[in-house]
Amino acid sequence: PLTKTINICLKRLYHGDPDIKPSIPESTLKKLLQLCVCENTFVFNGKAYQQVDGVAMGSSLGPLLANIYMAHLEEEFFLKTQHPFSPSYYRRYVDDTFCLFTSEDHVDLFLNFINSIDTSIQFDKESEVNGQLPFLDTIIKRSLNNMYPDVLTRVKPTDKGLFYNSQSFIPESYKSNLIYILVYRVFHIASSYTIFHHDLQVLKSKFLKNGFSSVLFDLTVRKFLDKQYTPEEQVTTVRRMKVTMLLPYLGPLSVFIERRLAELIAGFCPLVDFGIICGRGRTIGGLF
Predict the structure, then answer these.
(1) What's 80's DSSP letter?
(2) Which residues, at least 6 apart from 92, have a Cβ–Cβ distance to it below 8 Å?
(3) Is 77 within 8 Å of 83 (Cβ atoms)?
């Protein structure tokens, strides 16, 4: 409900906290918000359409406005009044909520209640099955040996396990960084080292299917774990100026140029923190 959400934003900014004083008039901000998110047009099957409500798919304002509206619903209908069927545990990420109830009968009562607040926004439910419940990128699973649940990395049914192929013409750092960030994700989701080891083996099998070597994967995992458990020494130094250069990726030549430039700058300008980002070079599509 865009109109309601925009009005909520304006009310909080201009008629809420007196210490908040926006530098532009209320009417101007309202027009700007409407210009950004309202009356979006798109083409489907050769026909032009206008979106009458809701934020366009991919809009950077979408998650922000959804979060504002959900926070408004929570404050107005959940926090001010406690109902007998309210969840005993409630957590939300944007428009996904994780709730625990003391009775299964309360689930439908609570769902019917929140769906009656605004007909333009309707919620659905996903209940626990076989002792586990998916939420965002995780799976919450009942633990038989612990009072706390097990948390695993969720793999969706549509996941094909496709990453960069090991033979892709991209900088080697892109490949190792891909492994690193996915290991980071698995590590911070897993609730125990046993789960982390299991999810890590699943992740490793996916990379092997994409042609990555077992050696590269293991070295990257070791690098990640060393960083987690090796305390960094805090050394006070003169602040260095950060300089980043963007160059097209040309294979081994780019690696040589990057290394040579880094050596020259380290020798002549030691107070410069120099780095190179190798981006995509010219493509055939870019010529048309």
Answers:
(1) S
(2) 70, 74, 98
(3) no
Reading the chain (288 residues) residue by residue, the pLDDT tens digits are 888 899 999 998 888 888 878 889 999 999 998 888 887 888 888 898 888 777 877 788 888 888 998 898 888 887 777 788 889 888 988 888 999 999 989 999 999 998 888 888 888 999 988 889 999 989 999 887 778 889 999 888 888 888 888 888 888 888 999 999 999 999 999 998 999 999 999 999 999 999 999 999 999 999 999 988 887 666 656 777 888 888 888 888 888 888 888 888 888 888 888 888 887 766 666 665
* Cβ contact 123:151 at 8 Å: no
Stated as kind and residue range, the H or E segment containing 67 is: helix 61-73
For the whole model, what pTM was predicted? 0.72
Cα 7 to Cα 240: distance, rounded to the nearest angstrom: 46
Going by DSSP bridges, is the β-strand pair 132-135/138-141 parallel, antiparallel, or unpaired?
antiparallel
Q: Which residue has tokens 């996904």?
A: 96
Question: 182-214: b or e for each residue (b if 16 or more CB lie within 10 Å)?
Answer: bbeebbebbbeeebbeebbeebbebbeebebee
